[in-house]
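Most newcomers find our protein records easier to grasp once they have seen one. A learned vocabulary of local backbone shapes supplies the integers on the structure line. Here is such a record, shown just as it appears in the course material:
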Amino acid sequence: MISEPPATEPPEPDAGAVDRVRAMLEQDAATAALGVEVLALAPGRATMRMTVRPDMVQGHGTCHGGLVFALADSAFAAACNGRAGGPVVAASAEITWVAPAFGGDTLVASAVEQTRYGRNGVTDVTVTRQGDGALLALFRGRSVEVSRPPAPPATNGGPR
């Protein structure tokens, strides 16, 4: 007789994960400088918002794509760090810009960690315009959990 393996319950979410993500974001000067607001945090999920300021618009009159990427990357970081015990960093990421954003637009990045396997994970982020819900960009990030936060390289006292 072949018996089925016992059903296993998914692990309980780490109660301190959201607190760790909030602490990480409090130290994130780049995200703060962009005016990014946290709308929601949960293990493996994050939603953030950014309004496109005049200094974020490039020569074609649209929001600079790197700043859309930065918003998506911040949501990615919050989502994948919300499920791990140790710090999680990006291993790679790609973005597809679907439609432009303009000055005054409010952008919403919604991140969902799709899978975690070993120390690795894959997280998808959609960036939409708050006013009409238009899809502006699709971002996919690959992450890796590390034993400690990255540190600047040691120097021998010379110029970097």
Q: What stands out?
A: The CA atoms of residues 47 and 110 lie 4 Å apart. Residues 17-145 form a domain with the Thiol Ester Dehydrase; Chain A fold (CATH 3.10.129.10).
